[in-house]
Design brief:
mainly alpha, Four Helix Bundle (Hemerythrin (Met), subunit A), 3 helices, about 80% helix, transmembrane helix, NADH dehydrogenase (ubiquinone) activity, NADH-quinone oxidoreductase subunit J
Length: about 90
Amino acid sequence: MDLAVLVFWGLASLILASAWAVVNGNDIVHAVVWLATVFLLTACLFILADAEFLAVIQVLVYVGAISVVIIFGIMLTKRTLKGGEDV
C-alpha cells in the first residue's frame, strides 16, 4: 500500500472516532471540542488531496466560526433545573 492511502485511512478512522465522541458525549463543551477535532481532521484530508485552499477555508469557517458560535450559545443559554431554579 502507498503511504498516502495509509494516511487517508488513519485520518478517516480518527474522524469517525471523533464523530462518535461528539454524538455519545455527555458534556456539551467536550462535544464541541470533538466537533472541532472532526473539522481539523477533515482539513487534513483536504491537504492530503492537494486542496490547500479548501483546508484553509475549512479551518477558518468551521473550526473558527462555527465552534465559537456554538460555545457562545452554550455560555449564553439560561439553564434551569427541574424544580425551576436557575443554575
